[in-house]
Amino acid sequence: MNPYADVASTLQESLNLALPPIAVCITNSVPEGVPTFQGQVPAGCLFWQEAARGAFATSTPDHELCAIGVHTHHMAAPASSYESELGRVLKVMADMEYVREEDVPNIPVLAQETKHVVYAHLAETPLPPDVVILFVHSQQGLVITEAVQQVEPAVPLAMGRPACAVIPQAINTGQAALSLGCCGARAYLDALSDDVALWALPGGKVERYAERIAALAGANNVLGKFHTLRRQDVEAGLRPTVVESLLRLEN
Q: What is the reported pTM?
């Protein structure tokens, strides 16, 4: 059995995920038996969603319709047109004051050159994941945030555009990060609806995150019932003590 199957199951069940945890693996060579991606996508972030269907490997040409994604992932040997394309994209964004010139150095970029990226359902990943991506709504994100603060311990970063920058952020720092996505990712990914955001968990600590997520999901479930009962009692004109509310919860 895949060594990450139990971790994937814990994350899936604890958070009740609509999309399975996605493994993102940076590698110099494609593992035997892993197919290469067929077709084309407008941006590399779409690979996160596609990976729920099965594992596949990508290389630079698969990412090149998005110059920003090639930049953040430090993809190896891009086409000769890449630099000019990236420059044009950044100029358009600068003209709109969406990404100003002084903002560019603050966009995370993978420190090492990337030859291939393998994407897979975490339970079936052919390689140890560098990052695990979770698509979550705010209540699920609450549990993840509490878990991250216990594992790191630190207040996790919340990021905006570009969504793909959450991958180098998690890898470069070794810490989990929340991405609210970007307008491009929200246009391309059906899974990234208005009430959904992304979490990037460093793969080397995913077992620890999963253990704390499971514990905190259970605690949140119990405490949620506790607070619901207290609200009902107070709205009914009662003034229950915490002990009285706890006893009612037990009953």
A: 0.93
